[in-house]
Every structure is written in C-alpha cells, then in structure tokens.
Amino acid sequence: MPRYIIRRLLMLIPVLIGVAFVIFSLMYLTPGDPARIILGTQATPETIKALRTEMGLDDSFVVQFGRYLFNVFLRGDLGRTYVTKSPVSREIMAAFPQTLKLAFWSVLLLTVVGIPVGVISAVKQYSWLDNTVMLLAMIATAMPVFWLGLLLILFFSVHLGWFPSSGFGTPMSMVLPCVAVATPSMAVVVRMTRSSMLEVIRQDYIRTARAKGQRESVVIFCHALTNALIPIITIIGLQFGVALGGAVLTESVFSIHGVGRLMVDGIKMRDYPLVQGSVLYTAFAFSVVNLFVDILYACVDPRIKAQYRRAGGRKGAKIFG
After folding, report:
1. Which pTM value belongs to this model?
2. Residue 87 backbone phi and psi in degrees, to 5
3. How far apart are CA 211 and CA 112, in angstroms?
C-alpha cells in the first residue's frame, strides 16, 4: 500500500503539468491585454508597453510557460493576481474553507439520504415507491444546478423567509447551497445504489444468508450493502472531488466566496494567474480525492486487500491501477 500511494502521488506531477499546459495555452490565446486591464483605459501606450515588458508578456509562449512551470513546481509560487497584487496561493487558501464546508456537508447530505433511499428502492423493486423514487431521480439529474438554486431562493427565502438567500456563515445560510449542490448528485447516488443492490441481492450468498434464518435487515445492510459499496464509493468520491474543486454555479448564485466564485471573478477580470492557480488547485484536489477513494476500496472490500497482499510490490499496484 505505501508503494502504491507513492506511485499515485508521483503520477500527479505529469497530470498537473498537462493541466497547466492546457489552461496556460487557453489564457495565452484568450483575447485581451492584461497590462491594459491592470492600468485601465486611460493608460498611455508607453506605460502599457513598459508594464508588458516588466511582466514578461512580450516573451514567447515557450519562455512564458517554462517560467510558469519553474515558479509553480520548483518554487511553489503560483504568482500574484493582477488586480489585488496578492499571492494567488493566499487567495485560494482564503476561499478554500468555504468550498470545503460546502463540499463536506453536501456530500454528507447526499450520502445519508441517497444510500438508504437507493437501498429501499432496490428492495421494493417495481413497486409504486420504486417508480416514484426513480422518477424523482431522473428529474433531479436533469435539473440545472443554477436553476435549482434560484428556485430554492425564490421559494424558501423570498416567499417563506425560512433561510437567507446568500452567504455561508451561519448554519441556516448553509442549508440551501448544500441542498442545491447535493440534489443532482444525490439522484445519481440513488440510481447507482439501486442498480448495485439489485445485482448483489440475487447472488447465492444472499440466498444462503436468508436460508440460515438471518433477519432481512441484517441480510440487506450487512451482507448485500457491504458488497455493493464499491461503485457507490466511486460515485460519492467523484462528487466530492467536483464539489471540492469549487461549485462554480452554486457559489455564484448564493454569493459564496469559494474557489469556484474566485475562478469566475478571475475569468471576468482576465486575471490569468488567478484562473491558472484555481484550475491547478481543482486538478490537485480531484486527484487526491480519487487516491483516497482507491485506498478506501481496500478498507471496504477485503477481497481487494487480500489480492494486494498476495500480489505485493509492483503487481499489487497494478491491481489498484
């Protein structure tokens, strides 16, 4: 396991370099002059030219990208924002707690609600309850997040006045954003749980457990659900990675100063270092979450752990890879 973790961490380097190349190329080809944006429309051409030279914007793409890679990977410097002149890493770390809270509570909500509902739907297959759950899941999956957020604000904030319409500082203000983020992902978890459970409860060892006289709740939750968790964990991990990368639309709708909102503001202001740093952070967070999900597989499924122990070394790493 330690060798596998080190291998996966080393694989982050080429992934992040590839992400850096893509986002740097997009920012390089995007119309607009950062020097003119910083100095304003009243700046003289001489002043703009001097600032471009100072910022290294007159250099070729290869030189600029090489300098960026050197600063990021060897010095740990994501640069400074064009607008506030503060380090990009400081801006991201200031916005990260809000995004982390939103991601954590949203994933907790979709897990606590989605898995039991999916299990019940599978046990009551083809019943009116199962059909209703699947219909609602299809609607929630197709529902745009920003539209759902606006509906929640309109109904629960404007008409009923139960929750604040913006912010993320109090428990009451956290309810609507978490529901908006969790609802589409919850529908995916419900459908995946139902599908995985239907496949497991038809296995021979489930019939054996029932033949031994074990209670149905023990058979479902201790035998069936445990063996159906692998695809469910995958979905939950992916949703947590997406939320941790910044729920761009939700943070914009509810005026939450998170990483997603920071990225949107950087795009609007043509703040290239801020956008590049935010995207790199998102790629890193997503990769780390995927690593933890892979490790969690071995904790949940003893078969994977046993295969890894028997194989050992490089061959064992291939099992996880």
Report:
1. 0.76
2. -60, 140
3. 30
Share of the chain above pLDDT 70, in %: 90
Spatial distance between the Cα atoms of 97 and 121, rounded to a whole number of angstroms: 35
The CATH fold of domain 89-320: MetI-like fold (1.10.3720)
Strand partners, 80: 87
pLDDT at residue 246 in the model = 54
Return the closest-CA partner of residue 272 out of 99, 55, 70: 55
Domain boundaries, the chain: 2-74, 89-320
CA distance 129 to 221: 19
From CA 183, how far away is CA 73, in angstroms rounded? 37
pLDDT at 319 (0 to 100): 41
C-alpha pair distances (Å), 274 with each of 16, 40, 54: 16, 19, 18
Query: Which residues neighbour 300 within 8 Å (Cβ) at sequence distance 6 or greater?
Result: 226, 229, 230, 233
| Calculated CA dihedral for residues 57, 60, 63, 66, nearest 10 degrees | 90
CA distance 233 to 301: 11
**Predicted confidence (pLDDT) per residue in 136-182, tens digit:** 888 888 887 778 888 888 888 888 888 887 777 778 878 888 888 88
